Every structure is written in structure tokens, then in C-alpha cells.
Amino acid sequence: MPEINPLEQRCISVVRGLAMDAPQAANSGHQGTAMALAPLAHVLWTRVMAYDPEAPDWPDRDRFVLSAGHASILQYSMLHLMGYPLTMDDLKAFRQWGSATPGHPEAGHTAGIEVTTGPLGQGFGNAVGMALAERNLRGRLGDGFIDHHTWVIASDGDLMEGISHEAASLAGAQGLGRLTVVYDDNHITIDGATEIALRDDAPARFAAYGWEVIELGEAGDDLDAIEAALKASKVDEARPTLMVLRTRVGSPSPTWEDNPKAHGNPFDEATIAETKRVMGLPPEETFFVPDDVANFYRNAAAARAATHAEWTERTASADTEARRAFEAAWSARPAGDIVAGLPTFGPDDSPATRVASQQVIDALAPISPSLFVGSADLSGNTGTKLAGAEFQSAATPSGMAMHYGVREHAMAAASVGMALHGGIWPVGGTFLVFSDYARPSVRLAALSKARVVFVWSHDSVGVGEDGPTHQPVEQVMALRTIPGLCVFRPADGNETAAAWATAAKIDGPVAMILSRQGTPTLTGTADLAVDGVANGAYVLVDPDDAQVVLAGTGTEVAVAVEAAETLAAEGITARVVSMPSWERFEAAGAEYRASVLPKGLPVVSVEAGVTLGWHRWADVPLGIDRFGASAPGATVLDRLGINPAAVADAARALLDDR
Amino acid sequence: MPEINPLEQRCISVVRGLAMDAPQAANSGHQGTAMALAPLAHVLWTRVMAYDPEAPDWPDRDRFVLSAGHASILQYSMLHLMGYPLTMDDLKAFRQWGSATPGHPEAGHTAGIEVTTGPLGQGFGNAVGMALAERNLRGRLGDGFIDHHTWVIASDGDLMEGISHEAASLAGAQGLGRLTVVYDDNHITIDGATEIALRDDAPARFAAYGWEVIELGEAGDDLDAIEAALKASKVDEARPTLMVLRTRVGSPSPTWEDNPKAHGNPFDEATIAETKRVMGLPPEETFFVPDDVANFYRNAAAARAATHAEWTERTASADTEARRAFEAAWSARPAGDIVAGLPTFGPDDSPATRVASQQVIDALAPISPSLFVGSADLSGNTGTKLAGAEFQSAATPSGMAMHYGVREHAMAAASVGMALHGGIWPVGGTFLVFSDYARPSVRLAALSKARVVFVWSHDSVGVGEDGPTHQPVEQVMALRTIPGLCVFRPADGNETAAAWATAAKIDGPVAMILSRQGTPTLTGTADLAVDGVANGAYVLVDPDDAQVVLAGTGTEVAVAVEAAETLAAEGITARVVSMPSWERFEAAGAEYRASVLPKGLPVVSVEAGVTLGWHRWADVPLGIDRFGASAPGATVLDRLGINPAAVADAARALLDDR
């Protein structure tokens, strides 16, 4: 081992001390990996990455993703030491109510945290999206504005998760050379030695994806070797890099190093004192940061931040048009009057809402420079083509259309990464039933308020012949359970357009639930949908003295309208309520809700999915509380009771009961 | 190309004819892959696999898994031709209501279909479980009873899905030599050439997992070459095999071969006639099976079935003990009085339900020879250790404990495969929040009624410091939306034991939702839980003249009990209802439900998760309609309103309102 500068050695020891002290104070946390990775973090923050602690949101910063999010105390310690707005008190409040230092890093919660990690593999997938976003923006705007690198720390667990395959394979196919993943190869998992369950040849695996692989081996505290490897990973711009770093969990604790228990259990006080003694730190001191260490880090941060000053100067001198283009791109929102540009649908139109949605995307594209549209190998089927756009690739980095391949999970995670990177408004399409494959990333999109539009078509048993494996029945409701995910299930083309208009304004992820089959344009939606959808639900058919409400979503609103007509012929007056978004309706307030669903008026609902959840709104919910069946879609819907006669029957029975 | 026997060539042409005719009749389906793979299927069914069409459930049959389930017409055609109980009328009713030939293969629906496939990657994961089950049973029972091979056809899409990584990596680590995956390398996906999104070196990738790789290349109709490669794949018993077979979608259609459109669109009549003409079939005939072809297949099937006769003879001559052991293993249920052997918990016990569940597993193990217990690297945390058991491996094939690694999705899919293989009662544990990672496999477990116990612990914000990324709030409800999944969230140790007792009898998957934190043993559960849990809900505290019901699940039942005590002190009588399983409660019937939740009695519910869904049972549902927070679990629960005071307040307010 070469000599290490004693001050830098001391810096690393201080980081390791913090990584023990905070979990010990919280009686909870993961110090083992944080300690092992302290030299790597030290090198990244002091010698490699471009960032500015005083401007955590500077667009052209390098992105750092701790995919092994359980080692959060490492990232928090570095953010604090480098001068981000994270205080020593924040470190002391690690994992406590209201603190800026939660158990796992949360984007939007703590300055300097780029993405929310912890569920393994997610950060890896996000980082691929960030590298895509960087390349795309660089391609669109020139490298005066966007020109940076994405760095990831990933663990054995990250690489075992299936999403790592999808994301790595995607990154390889795309040749994302601005991405470096450091694989923390520590041979330890919670249940014991990694080898009890994992025998992959990881370098060969990543080489098979088209990655560059740097096998650094055990670098210990050899900062120069780590620095050289990290910088070497930047040279080949045609391939992402996996850098394999052998570490020892809990290092340099004499008792706990290489022990699986060092992963998720705080050390005891004696072990901490012993380890501090080994490192030459005062064993009795906690949260110890001597002035020389503090100064070293602040000086290093100032040096790294010089890139920000250069960027500011450079971009200020760019011509006005270029700066405007950057700002328009960076906002990632459509410009101007969204509604005015959207297609409208008349009584003779009966497109599937997936087809209507494609028309909306076509209309949005010219006013949305950051609209980035792709699918998991279902572009035509889901209405997620981007007319006239090039497909994203190394040869066409400015391409706004994307082939994700059959990789729903990576598509979602990459979309989250792009949205949180900034400058991209990602839209990703697949069949609704396959939203299940992406659910972990959808959840984190919601938790981190990432502006992603998930287009999920083929939204019910109306899918038809493909059968129950491809017919969602539980997915719409299961998605509604995710806090912060705004779910739209529009009833026709006009509601679809209105849902997109609302989605453009929302600060978080949106689910666009679309039909495979055509559905009539409903009377009234041309005028009412824009406000109605924004409010989540609205009255579509409003006879005087309504006796009953028929409520529905999506293609079943047409069923409710037809049932209302049947009932009207019998002298029963029925109000029809379209409820495209429960989340928006909840947010619209009690008064508005009561205006749509007046207290005392009985409600029958109809939705071609499970009824669980509908009792919130309906006295009698009609739905499909079983899996579907393989047959033409209209047959399946009818046989499973999704038809106007069943709705009318339920309304009559409900009125008779009262 | 070597000469091919003209009759066998004609056989393959007939299969290709059926593969065109059935989608054409249905105006829906995927003939392209089915046509391309006809030679492979022909070889598998006539020369390679051991099976008996007259005994589709013969335990020692080879297992065939069409992971590329969209090519279902290929499998249906072969099942029909080989003499399985699938008629020509069934083929003609392809994808029609009530038919035995749904769009994608469904286990339990069609004889000869082993697992339900279509959602890509699932069959691959199931097959790994089947190979595990085979090895385990062979190890436990000797190869007189179980001694077969698992065959898989997988597509580009299967290999792009993340689950293929998890499952392949697991199979490699386990050295599952009795598994052959044929990779249908056709260079075509729905959106175009595979290369637009996929550039993996698949052979190198699988070699990195420790697989044997056979690159057969383009074999066309060279049946001998295909046979030789398939048989070669069986030789190395230490490694699973990936056999790469280059095919041409839609072959031998002169117009559609190699065209992405041949994937999922029926040909038109002219194209079908042209293709039949090329193949020497009468172009005007549909569903054409000449006698010589029919006879060839029936004779081949009879020859393959000889293995069944040998098995019957061999096992009949085994000693009584061995036969009893086989039968006990094959039932995959506990023997004898389950309830009598379960642990009971008294007033001084307050284990976390995950801890109680571990004790139940310990008690079940001695009477459950097929109980196979593992976790996704969280064995201690989730209570899924199997005391005294060896871990499953090539060296210890009879081991009933399993390290799945950090592979929730593969764990679930493999569990489904094991359950459907027979002879295994698989239990797999992870944190509840990570059930999201496994959801596609959980859904198919439910659709195919696979007897899997999913142990999901750390079931609420009670998780505490790990924070919102690790705190489920929506998962319990999202799981309840899946038809056919029985979800248990037991309130204490006694309910946990009762849930397992019920689970042992259920013909389908079970979710066991367990707490991280300790919770008191509730008064009454020792006597009431066995029947009460079986009924899904029951009255736990039953004062005379109850004014209000407090209903809850899991650890929140204790909160309801405490609230009832608070209210009792004020003279308000509250019934407490524990509702561990909504599915069982629904199934218990309206009369029973009304006995537990009488009409007219107001209900406050409390569950530490989203309230969506609770209006089915409660007037005022208390829950957590947001993500959690990082802090000690008791703090988070209390701050988010899960406490007795909030329940009592809600009850008072509800009574005041009336």
C-alpha cells in the first residue's frame, strides 16, 4: 500500500466515526457498509465529483446515487462535511421523527439526495435514467449546459435484484458511457456469506451487457488507486463502467470486520471505542470532527464547486436563444395554453382511450420540448409513439423516443431517474397488468414526487382474448392505494385530453389508465371534462330530481350512461357521475364532493375491476371480483356483469330496498 | 441440412397449420412463434420428454414450461396431437368463452399445462422452482419415485425481464442440472428487431451465472440436431443449460417470415393458403390433421408413456415405508391434528407475530415433511428459519431450508413452480414492503391456485427507523385486491397459529402479514382464534348492549381493545372485532358477517395502512393515508394517529353524530 496523507487518513477515520456514532445514538442503522466505503466516498467528494454544496440543485452537477441506501449515514456524513445544508444536529437526529436524516435517503427531503433509495436495485435503475437524461440534454442543448457524470454505489443485493439486470442491459444497449457503478463487493449479506446464494461472475455478467469492467480488487485506504480507477471509468464514453471494489464490512473494527452482523446492527459502545482507538480517534468522543478535518473537507468542496462557477460564466455568455432553450427544457413542462392545443372528440368519434392518448401526445409534443416518450416494447399498442422523433441512442442522443425493451421495471426506475435529474418529462407505456412488474419503482416515484407519466393501457377484461393473465382486474385499485400517485381512468377521448392537461401541472407521478377497446364520446365531455377531470369527478348526466346516482370510471361511464337511459324510459331519474381520478376528487374538498355525490342520494357504481374500495362512494358497487377469462372483450365484459342491464337492475333494486 | 423423414416433416407442417388456423378462427393469437418452434416441440414430445397423455398428473413426468406463453397454440396443438384430453373442438374454440384453450396457458384449467404463463419471465422462474422441487424430492425419496427433467421455452422477452436474472442466477448458484431452457432467439420483438433494445451476449450472460450454454444456431427443421442438443443438455447434471436456438418467426411463410407483424397478428387467408401450399398441405383445409400424422403422434406418445408404466411397476415394488413416505411428501400438507401441535400464547407473552410465526413453523415442521422454508436474505428477520434443516444445495438436495438471496421475485415464482410441481409446501419470507417486487408472481399464484405461503413481516410503519421506503402502508390493501389470495394479518401469537392452521387447508396462496414489533396476547384469542381466524373475523370483546364496534387487524386489534377499555370507563360499550382475513370473512357468508358486524351498529376501524377499502366494513376508518416516516416505530404509529385515544375519539364522535 502506498503512503496515505495522514490528514486524509484522519478524514476517513472521522467519517467512520460518524458512521458508528449516529447508528449508535439511534440504536438503529447500518454502519458496516458506510465504514467500508468511507475511502471511496472521500475520493468521490474530494477528488472526483463536480458539485456545489451551496447550490445542491445546480443542473450540471454530477449525480451521486447510493443504491445501497441502507448506508445512508455515509452519504449524510459526507453532505455535512462538504458543507451542504445538513448540520451536526441533523446527524445526531439520525432516524428520528422529523429529522433531515431518515433511515434511507429520500429525494426532496434532504438537500443533496438525488433519488430515494433503500429498496434494493432502485437506485441502480434511477441512475441509468439520470445518465440517459444527461446524454439527451447534452445532445439537445450542447455540452455548455449539461455535461456531467453519474456515480453509483451498488451492493450485492442491488446486483441480485432483477431490476439490476433490466437496467444494466438497457444501459449497455444504450452505451451510456457517463455512468459508473461501483460494486461494493463485500462478500456479506444479512443471512451470511454472499456465496450461500450468489455465485455470479459479476464482471463477466456486466461484460455480457456491453459494459466496461474495472476490477480494482481490495483497495483499502489506497485513495490514489481508487481515484485512478474512478477517473479511468470516465475515459470510455461508449460504455458504462462497473468498477468492482472489494471491501470489508465494518472495517477497521477488530471485532466486527467481515461479520454479517456488522451490516444492520449498531455496534456496542466497547466495540466503537475499540475501533476509534484503532483509528487514532479519541475513543470517548462522539460525533467528533476536528478542525483540520472540517477544513480539509470545506476546502475540497470549494475546489469541486469551481466547476459550478465556470458553468455559470459559460452559460451566462451563451446566446439568448440557447439560454431560453435550456430553460424551456429544464422546466420539463409544456409551454403555453395546454388545453387549447389538445384534440377534441365529437359524437362521431369513439376511439379507445389509448388511441386518444396517442393523439394527445402528438399534440403535446410540439409545445413540450422535454417530453420523452417510450414503451416496454408496446409503443403502438399503448399509444406511446412519438411522431417524427428520433429514437434515443448513442448515435442520436437528442432523440426523444425510446425503446426500453421488455423491461417494465427498468423503464419505471429510469423514468424516475430522468424526472429527478431534471429537464425530462418522461412517459413510459406498457399494459396495465404489467404495472405490477414496475410497482416498486412506481411507489418510489410517488414517495419522491417524480413527474413521470405511466401510460398503462389495456385496462380491463376488455382486453379480451389474451385472457386472465393479461386482463387487469385488481391493478387500478391497487394503484389507487399508493399515496401520492394520481390515477386517471378517463371515460373517453375528451376526458383523456383533460387528464393530460391536469397531469402536466401535477408535481408527482401520474397513472394514465387507458382502454384497449373503443368507447363512445359521451355527451357533455367536450364542455365538462377539462374542469371535471381536474376535480377528479363530475356530473355528466344531470336530470332534475335524480333518484339515484350511477357512478363509473373509464369505459364503464358509457355503461352507466346507457343504464341511465334505460331507467329514464321507465321514469327513474338517474344522475351519471364520471370519476376519473379518486385522488383529485378527494383533494377537491368535502363541499365539492357533496355537490357531485349529494348525501342521501343512493349510488350504484360500475367499474370493470375489483369492488374493494368502492364502498367509499357507492352503496352498491358493481365490478369484477374474480380473474377474467379468455374470449372477445365484449363477451367477457358482458358475461362478468359489466353491462347497462346489470347497472339498471342494481339501481332498481337499490331504490326498491329503501 | 440432413434429410428429414417426410412423415415427420408433414407432422411439423400440420402443427404449423394448426398454429395458423386457430388464431385465424379466433381473429386473435400468436402464430408466428408457434410456427417457428414447431420442430422443437415435435422433437420434445416425440423423442425427448417423459409423460403420459392419459395421466397428465403422473408425478414423475418431465415438466414442460412454455415461458413464452403467447405461443400457447403450439402447446395446445401438441397436447391435442399427443392424446391429452384436449379435442379438435377445443382447438377450434381457441380464445373463446369457456374453452379449454385460453389465450395463454393456464395451470388447473387445461390438462397438461404445468404453470400459467404469458406475463414474461414467469415461466422461467416457475421452472427453476420445478427443478428445485425435483431435486429435493429425489434427494428425500430416492430416484425410484422422482427422477425427471424440466424443459422450458423462453423468448427474448423472457430474458429481458428482471426475473430471468434472479431465477437464472439462483439456478446457477444451486447448480440445477435437470433444467434446460431453450432460448428462442428469433431477433424479433413487437416493436421491431430485438437489437433496437437488446444487445446482451446471452450465452456469456448465462455462462456468468454458471450455466452450461449450447449454441445450436439455426437448426431449421433438422430434428436430429435439435434432439442431439436437447439430450446433450441432460448430460451435465451439475449445471442448468441454456440452449440457444435461432428461429424465424412465422416460418415458413414466404410473406411473413422474420416480420415483427407475424408475432401477434393472425395472418390473412391468402397468406395462410400460401404458407400451406409451401408446406404441401391442402391450402383450403383448416384444422387439417391427416391420419398418418395423427397416428404418428399417438404412437410416439405411447412410446413416451412407457416411462410411466415403468414407474408404476417400480414404485409398486418399493417397500411400504418408502411408498408411504412418497405419499406423505406428495400431499404437501401437514399430517394429523395441526391445531393440537401448535404453540399457544398466554397473557405474559407478547411476541411480534413474526416471532410467533417462527414458533409455528418450528411446530409444523415435524408433521410437515414437505415444508420447504426460505427467505430472500431475511431468514432471521422474517421468522423463516427451519431449525435443524439442511440448506438446499446440490450437495444436500434433501435440504428443506433455502437461501433465495435478495431475489423476492424469483423466490415467489420458484415457490409457485414448486407448489405446482407437487410434493413441496413452499414458504418464502421477506419484508411486506418488498411484496411489491414479487407481485406478478403472487398474482399468478392466485390465478393458478398454487399452495404457497408468502411470509411478509415488518407489516406497517411499526417498522420504525428504516423509514418510509421500508414501511408498508398500501401493501396489505393492495394484496387484498388480488382475487384468490388469502391474506391473513393476525393480531397476536394465537391468531398467528390459527392463521397457519387455516393456511394448511387452503387450496391456494396465502399471505401471512406479520409485525416487526411485539404485541400483547389478547384476552380471548387462546379460545377463539382457531375458529375466528378460519372465519376471517370474530368478536373478541363482547359487552352487552354494545353501542359501537371497534374493528381492526394485526397489531391494531390491541389498540382497539385499549380504546374499548377507555370507552368502557366512560360508560360507552364497545364491541371489539378482530378481522384477520377479509377473504375468509367474505366467504363465511352474510349471516355470519351480520353476527359479527350487526346491521345498524356503527363501526370504527383501525389499521396502520391506507383506509381505502375499509368503507366496506366501517363508518369511520382510521388509518394512514400517506407514506410513513423514519423514527422509532412506536413514535411513528402514535404520530400518525394509530393509538387508542384516536380510536376512542372517533367512536365518541361517531356516536355523537347519530
TrEMBL record, chains A, B:
Active site location: E408 (proton donor)
Enzyme class, broadest EC rank: transferase
Keywords on record: Calcium, Magnesium, Metal-binding, Thiamine pyrophosphate, Transferase
Domain named Transketolase-like pyrimidine-binding: residues: 351-521
Cofactor notes: Binds 1 Mg(2+) ion per subunit. Can also utilize other divalent metal cations, such as Ca(2+), Mn(2+) and Co(2+). Binds 1 thiamine pyrophosphate per subunit. During the reaction, the substrate forms a covalent intermediate with the cofactor.
GO biological process, one term: pentose-phosphate shunt
Catalysed reactions, as listed in the record: D-sedoheptulose 7-phosphate + D-glyceraldehyde 3-phosphate = aldehydo-D-ribose 5-phosphate + D-xylulose 5-phosphate
A Pfam cross-reference name: Transketolase_C_1
Cofactor(s) the record lists: Co(2+); Mn(2+); Mg(2+); Ca(2+)
GO cellular component term of the entry, any: cytosol
Site (Important for catalytic activity): residue numbering on this chain: H30, H263
Molecular function per GO: magnesium ion binding; transketolase activity
Residues at which thiamine diphosphate binds: H70, G118, P119, L120, G157, N186, H263, F434
SUPFAM superfamilies: Thiamin diphosphate-binding fold (THDP-binding), TK C-terminal domain-like
CDD domains in the cross-refs: TPP_PYR_DXS_TK_like, TPP_TK
Record: residues binding Mg(2+): D156, N186, I188
Cited Gene3D superfamilies: 3.40.50.920, 3.40.50.970
Enzyme Commission (EC) number: 2.2.1.1
Function text: Catalyzes the transfer of a two-carbon ketol group from a ketose donor to an aldose acceptor, via a covalent intermediate with the cofactor thiamine pyrophosphate.
NCBIfam families from the UniProt entry: tktlase_bact
Quaternary structure and partners: Homodimer.
Similarity comment text for this entry: Belongs to the transketolase family.
Name assigned to this protein: Transketolase
Organism for this UniProt entry: Candidatus Neomicrothrix parvicella RN1
Gene from which this protein is expressed: tkt
